[in-house]
Structure formats: structure tokens, C-alpha cells
Amino acid sequence: MAAERHGPANTTDYIVHHLTNLQAGEGFWTVHVDSVFYAVALGVLFCGSFYMAARKATAGVPGSWQNFVELIVEFVDEQVRDSFHGSSKLIAPLALTIFCWIFLMNFMDLVPVDLLPFLGEQVGVNYMKVVPTTDLNITFGMSITVFMLMLFYSIKIKGIKGFAEEMFLHPFGKWMMPFNFLLKVVEEVAKPISLALRLFGNLYAGELIFILLALFTLGLGAETAAETLANFANAGAIAQFFTQLILGLGWAIFHILIITLQAFIFMMLTIVYLSMAHEAH
Fold first, then answer.
1. Coil, strand or helix: which one is 184?
2. Which residues are catalytic?
3. Cβ atoms of 84 and 181 closer than 8 Å
4. At residue 159, what are phi and psi to the nearest 5 degrees?
5. What is the overall mean pLDDT for the chain?
6. How many CB atoms lie under 10 A from the CB of residue 77?
7. Could you give the count of Cα atoms lying within 13 Å of 77 in the half-sphere of its Cβ?
8. Which are the contacts of 234, defined by CB distance < 8 A and separation ≥ 6?
9. What confidence tier does 222 reach under pLDDT thresholds 50, 70, 90?
10. Taking a C-beta distance cutoff of 8 angstroms, is the pair 222, 228 a contact?
11. Which one of 152, 154, 162, 177 is most buried, by most CB atoms within 10 A?
12. Distant-in-sequence, close-in-space partners of 264: CB < 8 Å, separation ≥ 6
């Protein structure tokens, strides 16, 4: 007996299915289980792999992985030294973590869109989004954390009085305090919002393009596995397959630049914002 296809039956269902998170809970306390799982798993992968490189580091001839880790660390350290004008032992490790973690989460966009959801269906998981940075909860979580650090260092470096003066007296002096405060609030709130939305928007658009390209998949719309196999004998279906392959490969190569650039931008803006928070004047 032919096995029945459990996936979506038409184009609309296919797109909606791939853009829906696996959820637990209700209302405000709803948790996107897939986003949290992949974000944590990739964070553990980053920490574990860099820890192993540090444990096995040698002053002699380094291995390829040690070379790669040293290259990334030196690259991030150079960006911090060029852009950060304060004194903090946290900034460089934070920048390294942000860059590598976001890059790994973005890199999941290069995994074939049907592969992990299909494997999930085999164990009863009906919804699975594998790119954490296409989830606003993840991007806002990171940007709000950066925002909290900005506030913490602003108060720590400038003191309560200095922070209040910056909020109420700049740029137009004490006679314009309400207007100064409004401008400052808009300026500060715009920082985490822009951080989160920029990362989310670019990765969500990239994922959507991969999904649209995947609509050329031969088995889409087939009700049984036998129908899917029968499609391979169709010349038009074969042409669709190679069209998908070529377009998908081209977009994936271009998308490597996007996922790297977005991780770099998030890291650099974090460094710049924290550098501004450390300025005492």
C-alpha cells in the first residue's frame, strides 16, 4: 500500500506550513518551541566548538580549526578596538558571541527548506521553522538584551545625575526639557527596534524566497508516494527540478553574503551603541 503524503496539499498551505512555528502555551506566554530549540542548540554548538579549540590550542603548528577560530577572534577583536572607545572586558566576548551565534542561526536558512520539517513529520512534529532569526521573538530578545546593557552602562559610567542630564538637558538645554526627553526616548527606543527588525526582515525575506523556489519540488501536490515517484517520469517535472536546483543554488550563494553581513551589522551596531553608552560627556 502506498504511503500517504502528510504535507500540505497546495501552494498556499505549503507556504503557510513552512512559516508557522511549533507553539506551546497560549496568549502572551506562547513559546515558539522550534525557534528556542534551534537557537539554544546552535548556541551550545558555538560555545562547545570554541571551547574545544581553546582546550586544544597549541603554541606550535596550529590545526585548521584552531586557525579558523583565531582568525574569527582576531577579526572581532580588531572591530572592537576600532569602534569601542571605553574600557570593558565584556564587549569583545559579547561581540564574538553575537557575530558567531547570529551567523549560525542565519546559516540554517541554507538548509533545504523541506529537509528538517520532513524529518520532524516522521516523529510527529507537524510544524518546524529552523531559522531562529526569522522569528521576531528571537531577534527582539537579542536586541532588548543589548538595550538593557546600554542602559546599564550609561548609568554606571555617567551616574544617575549624568544619565538624567543626558535625557532631559540635551540637545536644547533646560528650557526644552520635555522636548529633549521625547527626542531622547525616540532615539533610544529606535535602536533595539531597528536592530531586531533589520535582522528579522532580511532573513524572513530570504527564507520566503527559498520557499517559493521549493515550490518547484516534484512531489508538491501529490497525494501519495506513488504519484510523487510517477512525476519523475514527466519531462516537465524534470525541467522544474533542474530549474529549482539552479535557482536555489544561485540564491544560496548570494545569500551567504546576506547572512554574514547581517551578523556583522548586528555586532557592529552593538559595539557602537555600547561605546556611546561608555562616553562620559
1. helix
2. 194, 198, 202
3. no
4. 80, 165
5. 84
6. 13
7. 7
8. none
9. very low
10. yes
11. 154
12. 99
Instruction: For 74-112, write each residue's pLDDT tens digit.
Output: 999 999 998 888 777 889 999 999 999 999 999 999 988
Q: Using the predicted structure, report yes or no on whether residue 232 has a pLDDT greater than 70.
A: no
pLDDT score at 1:
34
Q: Reduced to 3 states, what is the DSSP secondary structure of residue 28?
A: helix
Place of cell 537557537: 39
DSSP H helices, the chain, are 11-18, 33-55, 64-83, 91-107, 115-122, 136-168, 177-214, 225-231, 235-277
Angstrom distances, CA of residue 49 to CA of 146, 254, 266? 24, 26, 22
Q: Break the chain into its structural domains and give their ranges.
A: 11-277
Query: How many percent of the chain have pLDDT more than 70?
Result: 87
Q: What does the pLDDT read at residue 220?
A: 47
- Per-residue pLDDT at 64: 85
Contact of 251 with 209, CB cutoff 8 Å: yes
Task: Name every residue whose Cβ is closer than 8 Å to that of residue 62 and which is 6 or more positions away in sequence.
Answer: 70
pLDDT at 121: 85
Bridge partner residues of 23 (DSSP): 32
Q: Which cell goes with 10?
A: 497546495
Report pLDDT digits (tens) over 117-140: 888 888 888 888 999 999 999 999
Q: Which of 132, 123, 174 is nearest to 37 (CA)?
A: 132
Q: Is 124 helix (H, G, I), strand (E, B) or coil?
A: coil
